[in-house]
Amino acid sequence: MLLAVACFALMDAVLKTLSTRYPVLQIAALRGMTALPLVLLYVTWRRAWPSLLRIRWPLHLLRGGLGIVMLSLFTLSVRHLPLSASYTLFFVAPLLITVLSVPVLGERVPRAHWWAIGVGFVGVLIALRPDSQALSSGLVTIGGLAALGAALCYAVAAVSGRLLSRTDSSESMVFSMMLLVALGAGALAAPGWVGVAPTDAWLLLALAVTGFGGQLAITEAFRHGQASAVAPFEYSALAWGVGLDWLIWQSLPASHTWLGASIIIGSGLYLIRHERRITQAHANAQHP
Q1: Could you tell me the pTM of the whole model?
Q2: pLDDT tens-digit readout, 73-103
Q3: 88 partner at 20 to 30 Å CA-CA among 71, 130, 216, 257?
């Protein structure tokens, strides 16, 4: 998981760099197009071609559409905000996944979880800093709202992914996501397509390698480790965001961003830890 987070953080730094040169939809398309050849090699190595078409197409199409919107919104967010600020708001995604798991997956959410979710949303408000000064220069502008929109898309895609994982292979989920993002975002970006400069070829290579490496690492993380044990390491993204912001763009998070991030991460860690205790209690009850 630490390797996955590192890869995705480096990928996001590439997205932020490209966002000043190309439209956000084109960047989403390039994300899919550059990763697709590596995904095809991975599917071939796994000998998973027979499973690629035996899938639940409606849910795959939904995840593909959400992937396009999520990538576009997150790229828009990092265009206007430091990586660390975008990550802070994106960390609300685990809270949204818990909320969505009730109507979609039929899961029961304990009362303590709802309190943690409420506290987490307070952290979002602090990070957004919705006052008169922020309305002109803070996170509550388009960058902050785009990050929250991306988190919502990610949460819905994650819940639909849980549904798909019951019947479809992980290879088919990765392949369909990259294919639909490449084709869908490419079609939407075509009217305003900007020619890619030859000097940006190394950025596209980095986009492909980091994106695919992160996807592969996170798949292996959840395959070999319990979700409740692995998920907390996702929050290491904030350290990467702060480091990359400082090294590349010479910026550091504001104090309200640190405070909001602390509250959001604390709420997320509480949810993960409490869920792990419930799972262990159920396991002990079934196997005394």
Answers
A1: 0.84
A2: 999 999 988 998 899 889 888 788 778 777 7
A3: 216
Q: Are 240 and 5 in contact (CB under 8 A)?
A: yes
Q: Are 52 and 171 in contact (CB under 8 A)?
A: yes
What are 7's two structure tokens?
A: 């890869």
8 A C-beta contact, residue 9 and residue 237: yes
Which whole number is the average pLDDT over 171-200? 93
pLDDT(147) > 50? yes
Given a contact cutoff of 8 angstroms between Cβ atoms, the answer to whether 211 and 35 are in contact is yes
DSSP letters along 96-118, please? HHHHHHHHHH-----HHHHHHHH
Task: Confirm if 14 and 203 have CB atoms less than 8 A apart.
Answer: yes
Q: Contact at 8 Å (CB) between 190 and 13?
A: no
Pair of tokens at residue 112: 């303590």
The torsion defined by the Cα of 93, 97, 98 and 100, in degrees rounded to 10, comes to 130
Nearest residue to 81 (alpha-carbon basis) of 262, 258, 245: 245
